[in-house]
Automatic annotation (TrEMBL):
Membrane spanning stretches: 80-100, 136-163, 305-324, 336-359, 627-651
Pfam families xref list: E1-E2_ATPase, HMA, Hydrolase
Location of this chain's protein in the cell: Cell membrane
Official protein name in the record: Cation-translocating P-type ATPase
Membrane topology (UniProt): Multi-pass membrane protein
Classification via Gene3D superfamilies: 3.30.70.100, Calcium-transporting ATPase, cytoplasmic domain N (3.40.1110.10), Calcium-transporting ATPase, cytoplasmic transduction domain A (2.70.150.10), HAD superfamily/HAD-like (3.40.50.1000)
Membrane keyword on record: yes
Keyword Membrane assigned: yes
C-alpha cells in the first residue's frame, strides 16, 4: 500500500461557508481519505489520500452533492448566473403578461419553479448532511408561498436569492484572486547566461547556481543574489512600498520583483517554485485553515441560531393559529422566518474578513500563519523587541582606533593581519575596514580570549580588554568607549597594549521611524537584550527610547520569563531573529520573526515579517481586520434581528426577509473586501 500523500484541489460549486463544512464532513467518511480540510476562503480542499482509488471514491461521494474536485490550477469556479438570468427573464415576462393579459398567477409560478429547481435539487442532495441549508430553506419557503397563492412573491424570492448567490460568488472570487495571484508575478521565461551565451528558457529549466540576466522592465525569475550590475528594483508586492530600491553586487532580490532601471545578473539561490512568493502563498493558505477564536464562537452560535428560529417558525405556523386563527397569515409569517433562519451572513462575516486580512498582509510583507495570530495581534498592548539583528543590522563595524605608542595606520594594519585567520564577527569587521594588511602567519584562536598571529616575527593578538591587567591610560580609554556603547577589542604585542579597536552595530536605518509609529499606536515598548547595558542604552538614545524601556544583560531564560510576565499584563508581541529568541517568540501572545533571521526563530513565530518596516503594518492591519470583523457581525446580527421582529409583527414579508439575508451576506463580503486595498 502506498504511503498517504497530500493532494490539493479546487472545489467547483463551493458557494458558502456552511457548504465547506458539509463537504469536509462528507470527505472524511470516504474510505482511503486519511485526512480532509476544506477552506471556503481559498476555495480549496486539502486531502490526504492513500491511493488513486481513494480519489475516485471522494469524487463519487461529492458528485451527488453537487460538488466537483478539480486539479489545483484548473479554471475558475462555476456560478448560478445562468439560472439567475433564466429566472429573471421569466419574472420579467410574467410581469408584462400580468399587465397585458389576465393570466393569473401561472406565469409567476413558472418563474418561481424554474428558479427554485437547482436550489431544491442541491438541497435534496445534501439533505442528510445538512437539513437546514439555505437551499432547503429557500425551497421550502418558495413551495409554501406557491401553496398559499403568493406566486408573485415566490418568484421574486427565488430571483433575489439567485442574484445574491452570483454577487457573493463574484465578491468571494476577488478575495481568492488576491490570495492566489501571488505566483502570477513571476515571468514565464528567463534569460539564462551560460557557456553558449544567453538563452531563453522556461522557469522549470532553472537550477540552483544558474545565472540569469534581468533587463530593464523585466521581473526577476527567481530568488537570488546579484552577481553584477546595478538597478532600481520595485518590491511593492512584498513590502507594500511603491518606491524602488537600489540593488547592486551582493544584494538579495526576490523572484517577481520588477527591475525598473538598469540591468542585473542574478545567481539563482532558490528555485521559482520554492521562493519567497511561493512561501507567502503557502503560509497565507495555511492561515485560512486555522480558525480564530471569534470565528469558533460565531460557528457555535450559528449552529444554535438556526434551530431556534425554525422552532419559532413552527410555533408561529401551527400553534398561534390555534389561539388567534388566520392560519394562512401565520403560515406566511413562518415562511418568512424560514428565510431569516439561515445563518449564512453570520457564518461568512468572520472568515471573509480574516481571509482578506491574510491576503492583504501577504502583499504588505506580513505573513500571518493563522487567522488566530491576526486576531491576537490586534489585542496586545506590549511589544518586546530583540536588539541585535532586529533593531540593528547585526553586523558590527569598526568605528574607531585609539592607538597607544603606534600610529593609527600601523595599528590597523597589524589588526587586519591577525584578523585574516579568524571567523569572529569582530575580526570580519576588521577585515572589511579600509586600509592595508600586514602579512601574518601562525594564526590561532583561543576561545574566550581572542585571536593571535605572528607578524614580523612577533606575536600579535586581538583580545578582550578584560583579559589583561591594563595601565591606567588604557583603562580610562576603555571606560570612555564603553560608556558610549562601543564593543571593544584590544590589540597587543605580547602583553603590551598597542591600540583599542571600537566597534558598533549600527541601528537599522528604518528602526527609529518604525518605533515612533508603534508608540503612536499606543504600544508599550520593551527592548530586551543580552548585550551590555551601555551598548543597549546607546542604541536606545539613537532610537528615542527611554531608559525605562531597556532591559539589558538578559539570558534567553530571562527573556522568556520577562515575556511570560508581559503576556499576563495585557498580552505581548515579541519580535526577534535569532536562535536565542525562539523560546520567547513561542511563549509570547504573538511571536513575530524578521525574515532575515534564523530558521529557528521563523518556525517559533506566528508571523513572519519581510522587513522591520512591515511591523507597524502588521499591527495596523490586524486592528483594521478585527474592526471589520465586528462590523460584519453587527451588520449580520442587526439585520437578522430587525427583520425577525418586523416579520413577527407582520410588517415585512417573504421578499424583504430574503433581501435582508442576501443583503447582509453581500454587505459583509463587500465590507471584508475593503481590506484588500488598505495601506497598512
Amino acid at each position: 500500500m502506498k504511503a498517504p500523500r497530500v493532494h490539493v484541489f479546487r472545489l467547483e460549486g463551493l458557494d458558502c461557508a456552511a457548504c465547506a463544512r458539509k463537504v469536509e464532513a462528507a470527505l472524511k467518511e470516504v474510505p482511503g481519505v486519511v485526512g480532509a480540510q476544506v477552506s471556503y476562503a481559498s476555495g480549496k480542499a486539502y486531502l490526504v489520500l492513500e491511493g488513486e482509488d481513494a480519489l475516485k471514491a471522494a469524487e463519487a461521494r461529492l458528485r451527488p452533492l453537487g460538488y466537483r474536485l478539480r486539479a489545483d490550477g484548473e479554471g475558475g469556479l462555476s456560478g448560478s448566473w445562468p439560472w439567475a438570468l433564466g429566472s429573471g427573464g421569466l419574472l420579467l415576462l410574467a410581469f408584462l403578461l400580468d399587465h397585458l393579459f389576465p393570466w393569473g398567477p401561472w406565469p409567476y409560478a413558472l418563474a418561481a419553479s424554474v428558479g427554485v429547481f437547482p436550489l431544491a435539487l442541491k438541497g435534496l442532495r445534501g439533505l442528510g448532511r445538512n437539513p437546514f441549508s439555505m437551499q432547503v430553506l429557500v425551497s421550502l419557503a418558495t413551495f409554501g408561498a406557491l401553496a398559499i397563492g403568493a406566486a408573485q412573491e415566490a418568484a421574486v424570492v427565488v430571483f433575489l436569492f439567485l442574484v445574491g448567490e452570483v454577487l457573493e460568488a463574484q465578491a468571494t472570487a476577488q478575495a481568492r484572486k488576491a490570495l492566489l495571484s501571488l505566483g502570477g508575478l513571476l515571468p514565464r521565461r528567463a534569460l539564462r547566461v551560460g557557456g553558449k551565451g544567453v538563452e531563453e528558457v522556461p522557469l522549470s529549466a532553472l537550477r540552483l547556481g544558474d545565472r540569469v540576466r534581468v533587463p530593464q522592465g523585466a521581473r526577476v525569475p527567481a530568488d537570488g543574489r546579484v552577481v553584477s550590475g546595478e538597478a532600481w528594483v520595485e518590491e511593492a508586492a512584498f513590502t507594500g512600498e511603491p518606491l524602488p530600491k537600489a540593488k547592486g553586487k551582493g544584494d538579495w532580490v526576490y523572484g517577481g520583483s520588477l527591475v525598473e532601471g538598469g540591468s542585473l545578473l542574478v545567481r539563482v539561490e532558490r528555485l521559482p517554485g520554492e521562493g519567497f512568493l511561493a512561501e507567502m502563498a503557502r503560509l497565507a493558505e495555511e492561515a485560512l485553515l486555522k480558525k480564530a477564536e471569534v470565528e469558533r464562537l460565531i460557528d457555535a452560535f450559528s449552529r444554535r441560531y438556526t434551530p431556534f428560529v425554525l422552532l419559532l417558525a413552527g410555533l408561529v405556523a401551527f400553534v398561534l393559529p390555534l389561539f388567534w386563527g388566520d392560519f394562512r397569515g401565520h403560515l406566511y409569517k413562518a415562511l418568512a422566518l424560514l428565510l431569516i433562519a439561515c445563518p449564512c451572513a453570520l457564518v461568512v462575516s468572520v472568515p471573509a474578513a480574516l481571509a482578506s486580512g491574510v491576503a492583504r498582509g501577504a502583499r504588505l510583507g506580513v505573513l500571518f500563519k493563522s487567522g488566530a495570530a491576526l486576531e491576537r495581534l490586534s489585542r496586545v498592548r506590549h511589544l518586546a523587541l530583540d536588539k541585535t539583528g532586529t533593531l540593528t543590522l547585526g553586523r558590527p563595524r569598526l568605528v574607531a582606533v585609539v592607538p597607544f605608542g603606534v600610529g593609527v595606520e600601523e595599528a590597523l594594519a597589524l589588526a587586519k593581519g591577525v584578523a585574516q585567520g579568524s571567523a569572529h564577527p569582530l575580526a570580519q569587521a576588521v577585515r572589511e575596514a579600509e586600509g592595508r594588511a600586514l602579512e601574518a602567519e601562525g594564526h590561532r584562536e583561543v576561545p574566550g580570549l581572542g585571536a593571535f598571529a605572528r607578524v614580523g616575527g612577533k606575536e600579535v593578538g586581538l583580545l578582550r580588554p578584560e583579559a589583561l591587567a591594563l595601565p591606567e591610560e588604557v583603562k580610562g580609554a576603555v571606560a570612555r568607549l564603553e560608556a558610549r556603547g562601543h564593543t571593544l577589542s584590544l590589540l597587543v604585542e605580547g602583553k603590551t597594549p598597542l591600540a583599542l579597536l571600537a566597534f558598533q552595530d549600527a541601528p537599522r536605518e528604518e528602526a527609529r521611524a518604525v518605533l515612533g509609529a508603534l508608540k503612536g499606536m499606543g504600544l508599550r515598548l520593551h527592548l530586551l537584550t543580552g548585550d551590555r547595558e551601555e551598548a543597549a542604552l546607546a542604541l536606545a538614545r539613537a532610537l528615542d527610547l527611554e531608559a525605562g524601556e531597556v532591559e539589558a544583560g538578559l539570558s534567553p531564560e530571562d527573556k522568556l520569563r520577562r515575556v511570560a510576565a508581559l503576556a499576563e499584563e495585557g498580552g505581548v508581541a515579541m519580535v526577534g531573529d535569532g536562535v536565542n529568541d525562539a523560546p520567547a517568540l513561542a511563549r509570547a501572545t504573538v511571536g513575530l520573526a524578521v525574515a532575515e533571521g534564523t530558521e529557528a526563530a521563523s518556525r517559533a513565530a506566528d508571523v513572519s515579517l519581510l522587513s522591520l518596516e512591515a511591523l507597524p503594518r502588521a499591527f495596523a492591519l490586524s486592528r483594521k481586520t478585527l474592526a471589520v470583523v465586528w462590523q460584519n457581525i453587527a451588520f449580520a446580527v442587526g439585520l437578522k434581528g430587525l427583520f425577525l421582529l418586523t416579520t413577527l409583527l407582520g410588517l415585512t414579508g417573504l421578499w424583504p426577509a430574503l433581501l435582508a439575508d442576501e443583503g447582509a451576506l453581500l454587505l459583509v463580503t463587500l465590507n471584508s473586501l475593503r481590506l484588500l486595498w488598505v495601506r497598512g
